[in-house]
Structure formats: structure tokens, C-alpha cells
Amino acid sequence: MPEGYITNMYRALWPSTLLALLALLALLALLAAGACADAAPPTSTPTAATPALEVVSPSASAACPVTRAAPLDLVPAEAARPIVSGSSHPDVVRANLSMAGNDAIWVTVPRGPVALHDRLFVVRLVPGRIAATGRRIDGAAPLPTLDVLDGYGDVGLQLVGFSLPAPGCWELTFLLDGVVSTQLTVTVLALAGPP
Asked: What pTM value is reported for the model?
């Protein structure tokens, strides 16, 4: 090994290490801000017949009826388990879990705007393959790209990535094996840059 090789290697890695640390601190700050955000209580109680999904009425400042999370006590343990169990701090993740769903599918819902290219975690409570579609509801736009990643089996956690072609208000709809009774639609607000 040439003299000074290790020192030069650490000098080369330092900027990327610093950048990674700053990104981690920013993520922690966003998580803390989301955990402290005040949210109005839901106006309806989900039942087996009606999904645990609520749409906030549009106001003058926010014209997009974004999907709100179900209260934590209504999120089934089998829907939360795949997301919480992978964490080194399951109590913190469970306390900040933001999901909406029905008897077949539960989806993580953002607490605020999303980026144009992002992902959602979908948990299947019954076996089946997920199909995902989307459309912009506040204007014209090409269809988004939704990527249902393979390799997750027939039940449990499934990662769905999306690329929205323009900022705006978007409905993302998930179905299991094309069965309409399993349909779950989540409405998100997308920004042009990072949320």
C-alpha cells in the first residue's frame, strides 16, 4: 500500500460522510416535526363496511382533499407489524405511524406533501397481488408511473414507488387481484421539489 493511502482514503470519504450525517439530521427533524404536528380528529368512525379512510375537506388554503390517517387504535396490529418490526425503535415508529386502510389493504399515508418521486408502503391483510393506478384530480396531466416491486410474497408488506409527472393533487388507487371490494384510494399533494 502506498504511503498515505489510508489518510487520503479518509479525506476522500469525509464529504460524503458529512453529507450523509446532514441528511440523517434533516430526516430526524422532519420526523420530529411530523410527530408534533396537530391533526384534527377524524369525523367518522371506520367500520368493517366503511374503510378506515378519511378525506379532509378542502379549505381556502389547501384545495387538495388529502387522505388523513386513521387513529392509531383503529390500525390493525397485522397492518402495523411489518412496518414497526423492521425498526430499531418500534415504539417510536408505532407512535408516529400514519396509515389508512380497509379490510384488505392498509397504506402508509404522508403527513404532508410528497415529492414527485416517492414511495408508499402497502400492507396486504389478505393474499393477492397489488395493482396500482393514479390520476391527477386538480388539472390535466399525463398518467403517473406506479411501480409495484416484486419479491414480497402474496401477503404482508409491499413497497410501491411512484413518479408523478407534475405537482398537484393526485389520487393513488390500490387493488388486490383487481377485486373492486379491496380498492383503497389515497389522495396526496405533490410538490415540485422536496416536500
From this structure: 0.65
Q: Write out the three cell numbers for 139.
A: 388539472
Whole-angstrom Cα distance, residue 168 to residue 110?
Answer: 15
C-alpha cell at 44: 367518522
Are 152 and 122 in contact by the 8 Å Cβ rule? The answer is no
Tens digit of each residue's pLDDT (9 = 90 or more) over 20-73: 444 444 444 444 444 434 333 333 333 343 333 333 333 423 589 999 999 999
What is the grid cell recorded at 150? 416484486
Give the pLDDT confidence score for residue 19 in this predicted structure: 41
How does strand 145-148 pair with strand 168-176? unpaired
Q: Which CATH number does 44-190 carry? A: 2.60.40.10
Q: How far is it between the farthest Cα atoms of the chain?
A: 71
Locate 178 and state its grid cell: 383487481
pLDDT score at 2: 54
174 exposure class (CB count in 10 Å sphere: 0-12, 13-18, 19+): buried
In the three-class reduction of DSSP (H, G, I as helix; E, B as strand; rest coil), residue 103 is classed as coil
Q: How many beta carbons lie within 10 A of that of residue 109, not counting itself? A: 22
Give the helix ranges, DSSP H, for the chain. 5-36, 77-84, 90-95
